[in-house]
Amino acid sequence: MIDIIKVIILGIVEGITEWLPVSSTGHLILVGDLLKPSMSDAFMEMFNVVIQLGAILAVVVLYFNKLNPFSPRKTQKQKMLTWQLWIKVVIASVPAALIGLPFNDLLDKLFYKPLPVAIMLIVYGVLFIIVENRNVGRRPTVKKISELTVPMLLIIGVFQMLALIPGTSRSGATIIGALMIGISREVAAEFTFFLAIPAMFGASLLKLVKFGFHFTSKEIGVLMLGCVVSFGLSVLAIRLLMGYIKKHDFKIFGYYRIVLGGVIVAVTVVQLLLA
């Protein structure tokens, strides 16, 4: 029963933080360290990534009509634009795929720890504030996903690649990259959601392959419960975020990241001194 409660908490954390630019993986690592579920470290490392499948499903459900090129309700032009959207997603996914596949295990080994997570939280928190301050008074040059060019897509893809380091935030990194090149907040956030589909599905598949698909009945239940909870909270988080950024900037997330990162650094230092 206690483990079920812990898994529900982790699902809530994933669902809320996956689409906010605050690093869901970083939060799962930190909350997992506090809760300490009874499952093995290897399983929990895999769980923290695979639980994102619930969050992916939330995007697919909310944007199904926009993402579906086979919809009978769409005109030929609308279907063509949908295919173009998927081509843009594929192009922007290339940098992360090239680095993520060969270096995934190494990056996990080096950075899957509280202190590196804290550092990345702070660094990208500062970046959010700098970029938003720089953009004050500037009009975005791109207000539709259809206006994204190949160079823009590759720049966004490079920023997504940087998010392979836990604590960076995949959505945070891609949104920062998009804002830096003149893309509107709404387009930056929405394209980040779509870009997550292949990125997170691929990351989840890699973890499942690495774990070997050998699960106990308890572990299967844990994965399913975590995904269901993360799906429900992701639907809510996406709707709230898109409503929020219509009238506000991303600086509040930058301040949150800096404060949280500072707290983690302080706690880590105290633990080292007391060890």
Termini separation (Å)?
32 Å
Mean pLDDT: 90
Uncertain stretches? none
Order of helices and strands: HHHHHHHHHHHH
Helical run tally: 12
Molecular shape = globular
Oligomer description: single chain
The chain-level structural class is mainly alpha
Number of domains: 1
> What's the number of extended β-strand segments?
0
Secondary-structure blueprint of this entry?
Elements (H helix, E strand, L loop, with lengths): L1 H16 L6 H12 L5 H10 L1 H11 L1 H4 L8 H36 L2 H21 L15 H13 L7 H11 L4 H27 L5 H28 L6 H24 L1
Helix pairs in contact: 1-2, 1-11, 2-3, 3-10, 4-10, 4-11, 6-8, 6-10, 7-9, 7-12, 8-9, 9-10
Structure report:
There is one protein chain. The chain is mostly helical and 275 residues long. Helices cover 77% and strands 0% of the residues. It has helices at residues 2-17, 24-35, 41-50, 52-62, 64-67, 76-111, 114-134, 150-162, 170-180, 185-211, 217-244, 251-274. α1 packs antiparallel against α2, α4 (52-62) packs across α11 (217-244) and α6 runs parallel beside α8 (150-162). The longest helix has 36 residues, at 76-111. The radius of gyration is 19 Å and the shape is globular. It starts with a helix and ends with a helix.
